Amino acid sequence: MGFLNYLVRRLALVVPTLFGVSLICFVMTYLLPGNPAMVKAGPFATPEHLVEMERQMGLDRPLPEQYLRYMSGLFHGDLGESSSTGRPVAQDFLQRLPATLELNFAALIIAILIGIPLGVVSAVHRDSFVDHVGRIVGITGVAMPSFWTGLLLVYVFFYMLNIAPPPLGRIGSGITAPTAITGMYTIDSLLTRNWVALRSSLGQLVLPAATLGFSVMAPVARMVRSTMLEILESDYIRAAWAAGLPRSTVIYRDALRNAMIPIITILGIVFGFLMAGNAVVESVFAWPGIGNYAVTALMTKDSAPIQSFVLFVAVMYVLVNLVVDLAYGLADPRIRLR
User: What is the CATH number of the domain that holds 106?
Assistant: First the structure.
């Protein structure tokens, strides 16, 4: 019963959070230079046609009335219509969301598989050559912009070595996409045993996932290292060493398990960052996800996709934080959510 009350309280906080995000995003979009009606009407529209388009879009109404109209559409599941594509934003999102999720999950897996072992090894071998290399990699990952990392990988692996496919989309040219089940090409290729599509989709996924994974691997490795250093100096770890327990048992069962709370926290933050920060990487690799969609909308002041993207990222942050809180109880049975 205590857990249910906690869950209800957390979900109740979602409402004012999303309301505030929607209000700020709507006002900021309104203040952007440009005219959404001109985007929809086209550059050769006459002044009379432009005025009529503004009336149809409700842009001639006062700002509070425009916001109420926008919120009314949200409550009815209407995210508006994209002036660039001429289709409902919800339809565009559903079409592009699997591409973004596929890229983000791949980047998160790379960050976990590299960041956690790197942080553990750096902490165990403190001030050694391995530790110095790990810290350099961590600083580099934080300092290098993701667009520069992506361009560098494209230059090395596509242009110089010619071992990567052209950075143009999710699957190679001339190869038919797998039958849609989840919308993620790699998963759908496995489920339908379409090995040609699987090889092609994995080849297209490697460089953008490595770019995103490298940028978020650094904070994961740094958090794991700092947490493990603190735990390895604790009394119960010293007692475990003195008792002659196996090295792997002390490091991975005792120390790493007790470091899981901060690790879970940083992984939640990293996944939220991936949802918001993938727009640049998707633009570099022409990845047809919602990040690329939002960047295109921002350049043309297509307000509905911009507002929907920001709102979607806010929802993802709220859900990820909730999942992280629930995961605390699984990682540490002493934690009880009430």
Answer: 1.10.3720.10
List pLDDT tens digits, range 136-149. 887 787 778 888 88
- 86-113 pLDDT, tens digit each: 788 888 888 999 999 999 999 999 988 9
Angle at which helices 303-331 and 260-284 cross, to 10°: 160
Contact 102, 186 (CB under 8 A): yes
| Domain identity same for 262 and 148 | yes
As a whole number of angstroms, the distance between CA 67 and CA 213 comes to 37
Asked if residues 114 and 106 have their Cβ atoms less than 8 Å apart, the reply is: no
Residues 6+ apart with CB under 8 A from 11: 322
Same domain, 62 and 97: no
Size (the chain), residues = 338
Q: For residue 118, give the nearest of 220, 253, 255, 265 by alpha carbon.
A: 220
Q: Of 12, 47, 75, which residue constitutes the final position of a domain? A: 75
119, 221: one domain: yes
Find the domain containing 266 and state its range. Answer: 93-331
Look up the pTM and report it.
0.83
> Is position 21 within any domain?
yes
The domain tally of the chain equals 2
pLDDT in tens, 272-315: 778 777 888 888 898 998 888 888 888 877 778 888 888 888 88
Question: Is residue 83 in a domain?
Answer: no
